[in-house]
Amino acid sequence: MMMRAHYSRALLLLTLLIAFVAPVVHALDEAQAGVIDWHHRWIGTPRLTATPKTVRGSPHVFVATEKNVVAAVRTKTGELIWRQMLREDEDIHVIRPVNGNLFVLSGSTKTNARMLDGKTGQIIWDFAPAGEPAYSASGFGQAATVTAEDGNLIVINQGIHIRKLSANVGTPIWHWSIEEGSPTSFFAVVEAKGFDKHDSVLYVIGLTRGVAAFSLEIAVLDSNTGERIKTFNPKSSILRYEDVQVLGGGSFEKTGYVAWLETENKQLGTLKLGSDRVNHQTLKSIIDESSGFDQIVGPLEFEYLGPLEGRTAFVLSAAVGEYHDAKSAILLEIDEKTSKALVTFDFLERTGFSVFSAAYKPSTQDLVILRAYRAEVESGLLELVDVTKHETTMQHEFELAHDQFGHITSASLELFNKGQDQYRVSFTTMDGSFHSYADTERWYREESLAYATGVELLDLPERKLWTQEADELAHDAKTAEGHLSLIDRYTQRLTMHLSQLKDLPQFLISYANPSSLFRKAPKAVPYSEVGIGASNRTLSPLYRDQFGVRKLMIVSTGKGKLVAMDTANKGQIVWSRQFNWGHDIKNVFTVRPANLRLPPLIAVVAETGDGSGGHMIRMYRLNALTGQDYESESHFFPSSSWIPAGYKNAIKLPFEESEERTQVIVIADDRMHLTTFPTSIEVQEHFKNFADNFYFLLDKKIGAKSLNGYKAIVSADLERMDIEPTWTLNFPEDEEIVTFGERPNYEVMASLGRVLGDRGVMYKYQNPNYVTVITVAAKVAVPFMTVYLVDIAKGSILYQATHDNIGLDQPILATQFENNVVYTFWSEGLSTYDARGYQVASLELYESGVRNDRIKGETFSSFSSQRPHVIAQSFPFPYEAVAIGVTTTKAGISSKDLLFGLGRDSVMALNHRWLDPRRPTSAPTAMDKEEMLVPYGAIQEDTRMMLSYHLEVAGVRKIVTAPTLLESTSVVVAYGHDLFVTRHAPSKTFDILNEDFSKSQLLLTIMVLLVMLVITKPMMDRKELKEKWF
Amino acid sequence: MATKQWKFDFASPDIPRKSVIDPPGYLSSKDVATRAQKKSQSDDDQELLKVKKAWDVALAPGKQLPMQAFMLWMSGNSVQIFSVAITAMLMFSPIRAILNMAQVFDRFESASGVKQSFTESALYLPKITFIAMQLLSILLGMWKLNSMGLLPTSHSDWLAFQDPKTPIEFASM
């Protein structure tokens, strides 16, 4: 702290001078776009895949993802062609390619049926039936199919509405529905061969809720008018709609079938559509057909093979073996004559979580079934089975690292013919990523990044230091143990330096290389988010760059995966690591920075299930440069460890232990125990002393009505370290916590006070222990929000402010830094005449309201009686903010920019001086002018403030920043869905030369002067000599 | 004064030629010499004159003060090259003058080789006054520096040298 403070003093004057001279707003230079920043467009993990039917292979594949994004992905490269982000509550039920376009049925409380242009993603038509939710009471009931007859769409919604929509304009041609609240929900529709005199009929398959189970109901509709012709109610007892498969059909010529599993009766039912005759087969007879089912442990289930009309083959599978990871499967086909299902192929037992998909061969229309599973720790396996030939036609093993991707969760097969039959498999893995595999082309999209929940920015080691140490260590193993005497060490260092001398000429040449002088400013190169994980790429070694702008960005994701990316190389993935089986990653801490001779370390704290309904805290120590477990000789530093209890909180403590030089972490669990990491005696002793003044919160629960403070209790013999509640803060009735103010990870206060116009000082309130808590009372006539600044050491409210009549559906965000708090909300106005809109409010906390008044003392205690003097002001804000952050710089001297992620999919930087609560609301006085306060006004819309220029940075949830070695510059990372990383200099880059500074010109001038000197010096000498003669 | 003399004194070019009248406006060198002799005879007068001259020199900076004050006022209170240059001049030239005081007053020192203590010296008061006058102009410069805000007299000037408070408690969310 002291060091930083001195450093800051030295820079202060210069910086302030330049900061004030620099213009207030400066936009990104056009040439810099895409050079210093990068942007990854993510879509989330695909849930539904649809490939347009082609012969020569589709150029794009349509996907609908868990995050409700519809997108078209280029099949060759994996790049995004377009994406449409639907609302968070707008679940996608069906996607169907229709003549090169894409039909999408989506919604939850409302329903939208849309046709999107296949090339651009633009909406061609949108049909939204008024007041019709998408979900039925049973939770299913959406389907869509394209009729072979006229190419129009049959759409089922809410389980009760069946419509024929015109594929061209989206108007309903007919609408048939059963009354709402009926026990029947329809969920599938198929166009198939009619019966009696009815030729063009549609079979709508539904389930009717009975006492114990569902039973099938099949309605037959006239395809042209939508009138019901007949209803079949075959005898059946079905538990879930996934246990029903509709087979065959696809045109009026083909017979349709339904197959279903009756789990309770242990039988398989089949039925020819248009008849009442049900065939039952016992499951036992099916199981006995295959030796693979010898060790069956799970129930038989249908494998979903994709939206594929007309097939009569289906796959039944079950988990086998004691570890539940092996799966046996068999292929069944409906016999046309008897309508019975016959086993025609045995897929046998395979470990590694098989998934299935099917497609037709474009040349012969033969059905081919894909089975994809993990074969080895490092590889996956694809098996193609030709249904007509009843044989495995291809087996292909491919690289798929288990610790990066986990198992395959779903697959989709596409067959095409380019002179010969080829295949392409798209599949998703447990980590959420989306892969595509074909003979020659292979790519994957690291979609786990769309679920980013946290980002830790790590400085890279300095090249010189690192190699030097490594070289010396390599010389002699003894060095590592530190047994060398001082002289030995010195000679070793000397010899090493001497040996390095041979590189000197080369170094000088490279330094004097004229081409480096005339190098143009770096140009933006095209990049995409797909290339970041390519396995054949060459990674530049992980060293810090000159200004420390290059960092390792460790992203923790909601999928239980850690992804380390290189911020300088467009986010190239350095390593990634998948923690399987529901790891909920809670914290990633840098416990040892890179500037020591030991590699940087991160600690990962995650919560998992313990297999019996309970929770377990798991903790890992990884080498931050490789992602591998970090093994240490000391048994106090296991690379992974666990606590058999649920997670409450994990805190990085401000001291380090001496053995491995890592910072100590303390984990609080739901047994109200504390565990330090490492657990060595030294650490526990230290923690015991530390615990006297250590206070913390346990759960930062949104929606809570109170806030609780806790303290550590360490017994004298270090046997027990427990948590003791110290205070409770109950908020008034109706109020619930909506947000906490986030503090930046790194913070240095350069100046202890604020200088006023008359050179007086307002001293900043230096309490590091206050937290901003915002509550909302929503269930009152006029909803209001209250901002509390709570000292979490003693649990007292330092300040509170209430805003009446706020907008409840709008985001409320808060951030705090130094002695400032900034929060945003929507104001409905206090009267009908007031303007409504977003407001951003700013608080500044001072020790005293009187100038030049500083509270004496060298220490600050939360338990002293002093309260801050708070200056507050709010400003109308032109945008919807969905994320908030603040820039951090090395010494904290540069001015601060507030960073906002906006609802309009961009990232904005706003200088803090615009949010200064001391901006004069009347005509500025001489003192105000001296202080350079801008008169009060609304925050203006200004596109120059957009850090993301024209990029569509979707779904930003959080913004984190990290300092660089340049005081002016801060690295900004916006994440949540898309990933956007840039550099930002709030006070402009005053500490580096401008990019257009002409070094060549300077050098040229010097050269010319030197030459002139060389020429003129003898001339002058001669002249002087001559003058002496006369 | 001029009586008959029978010898020539070659040491003095005075030629007693009473017969020839000097041309109008001519002053014989002897006359001048005699007059000078007359003056040099009164040493006390000489000393007084020196002291008087010394007083003139000592008071000269004081006479400049109003002019300098006017210039400072004209240059304004903003920190610019002009005002800074003037103020710097105002600060440094008195110091230089004080350092060079011995030279300035050298020609007014009494010729007698007797060492006198400073207080006994006749130039004692003028010298003190001289220093006082120079200090006055330094003060004027100080006042100017202050009004330009360049003197570290306010809290803000010492802000960077204050140490932050160490928090006793460590609290974490």
UniProtKB/TrEMBL annotation, chain A:
Keyword Glycoprotein on this protein?
A: yes
Asked whether the UniProt record includes Signal among its keywords, one would answer yes
Q: Which residues form the ER membrane protein complex subunit 1 C-terminal domain?
A: 818-1029
Predominant location of this chain? endoplasmic reticulum
What do we know about how this protein assembles, alone or with others? Component of the ER membrane protein complex (EMC).
Protein family: Belongs to the EMC1 family.
Q: What is this protein called?
A: ER membrane protein complex subunit 1
GO aspect biological process, one term: protein folding in endoplasmic reticulum
From TrEMBL, chain B:
The keyword Cell membrane appears for this protein = no
Report TM segments.
81-102, 122-143
Please report the organism this UniProt entry assigns to the protein.
Answer: Actinomortierella ambigua
Alphabetically ordered keywords of this record: Endoplasmic reticulum, Membrane, Transmembrane, Transmembrane helix
Residues folding into a coiled coil are none
- Chief subcellular site? endoplasmic reticulum
The keyword Amino-acid biosynthesis is annotated on this UniProt entry: no
Topology in the lipid bilayer is annotated as: Multi-pass membrane protein
The record's subcellular locations are: Endoplasmic reticulum membrane
Instruction: Identify one Gene Ontology CC term for this UniProt entry.
Output: endoplasmic reticulum membrane
State the name under which the record lists this protein: ER membrane protein complex subunit 4
Query: What family does the database annotate?
Result: Belongs to the EMC4 family.
